[in-house]
Amino acid sequence: MAFYSPDGAMDLILGNAIGSLEADGRPGLGAQLSVSWLRYGRSQRQSGVHADTSAAFWQQPVAGAHWNGQRLRYPASVVKLLYLVAAEAWLQRQLIDDGPELRRALADMIRHSSNDATAMVVDLLTGTGSGPELPPGAFERWSEQRQLVNRWFAELGWPEWSGCNACQKTWSDGPYGRERQFYGAELENRNRLSTDLTARLLHGVMAGALVSPAACSRMQELLARSLDPAERAADPENQVDGFIGGGLPEGARLWSKAGWMSQARHDAAYVELPHHQPFLLVAFSEGAALAADEQLLPELTRQLAEACRLREPSITPT
Fold first, then answer.
1. Domain range for residue 253?
2. Does any domain span residue 34?
3. Residues 211-241: pLDDT tens digits?
4. Count of domains in the chain?
5. Residue 282 confidence (pLDDT)
6. Structure confidence by residue, pLDDT tens digits, 162-188
7. If we measure between CA atoms, which residue out of 229, 224, 226, 246 comes closest to residue 302?
8. Which residue, among 81, 100, 93, has the nearest Cα to 211 in the 3D structure?
9. Is residue 313, in this structure, part of any structural domain at all?
């Protein structure tokens, strides 16, 4: 059962939006797209801090809808959101040491989507390192260590985690040596996530309900995106234009982590917009055509944001 309550009206709006986008020159979109969409009655920022227990927070009703929300897809750089949460959890347990170099790596991993920074974080979280191929016994021990992040997420007991995988680094050119060995002959050990799992994770971060409120505040700071056109133009790793933020008007506030490669264009975002209900949107799209489509996610966002607009109450003459 999803952590949110399925809303029939939202489900219809989402289905209609995807249908219109597919009809607008995107054949097969319905099969290549996954979306999870949550809509809130008030700001979710640090809302979980006021719950009596963590369990009480997760039982609070949230309206939502999905399209292929449980389907597992390669997450590209969206997986870095999971490594950020894991790093804060390791710090809380004093499994790793805090310091300026770790904070620099986490910031570059999220703000600039640095693959080099991500490699350092994954090595630190798992006690592993890249290098040449390993013989069977050493490789088995190395592989077991690399599964530490997966095991921690499994311990959370979230049904959305079923089948997910977050144990690989992210690459510019691709894995080599033991990293390629770890992918498997048919790449069967690639990272894989669903939009429902990603939505639950971002929902918890924004509410201050994962690891600790202080940790969530630090994560929110890294996820905050500027919608200022000049700042976006100056950012070589712009995670707004062509993604969810590209469909937001002036005055919106955005917290997000995007992922983009030759075969995928993804984003996970929490949005607050004047005169609208806050909403959370995660969208994964697959295939070369959709990866190159810079209008898909912004247009989907515009349509769903319009459905979150607060209507002026009607005035009945007296």
1. 5-18+41-306
2. no
3. 999 999 999 999 999 999 988 888 888 999 9
4. 1
5. 98
6. 999 999 999 999 999 999 999 999 999
7. 246
8. 93
9. no
pTM of the predicted model as reported, rounded to 2 decimal places: 0.96
**Which H helix or E strand runs over 90?**
helix 80-92
- The candidate with the shortest Cα–Cα distance to 247, out of 263, 225, 231, 220, is 225
Query: What secondary structure letter does DSSP report for 313?
Result: P
DSSP string, 94-138: TSS---HHHHHHHHHHHHS--HHHHHHHHHHHHT----S---HHH
CB contact at 8 A, 266 and 202: no
Which residue, chain included where needed, has tokens 């009655």? 41
CB atoms within 10 A of CB 303: 17
User: For residues 286 and 284, what is the distance between their CA atoms, to the nearest angstrom?
Assistant: 7
What CA–CA distances, in Å, run from 33 to 5, 22, 23, 71?
Answer: 21, 10, 14, 9
Give the tens place of pLDDT for each residue, 299-314: 999 999 999 999 865 4
For residue range 60-74, list pLDDT tens digits in order. 889 999 999 999 999
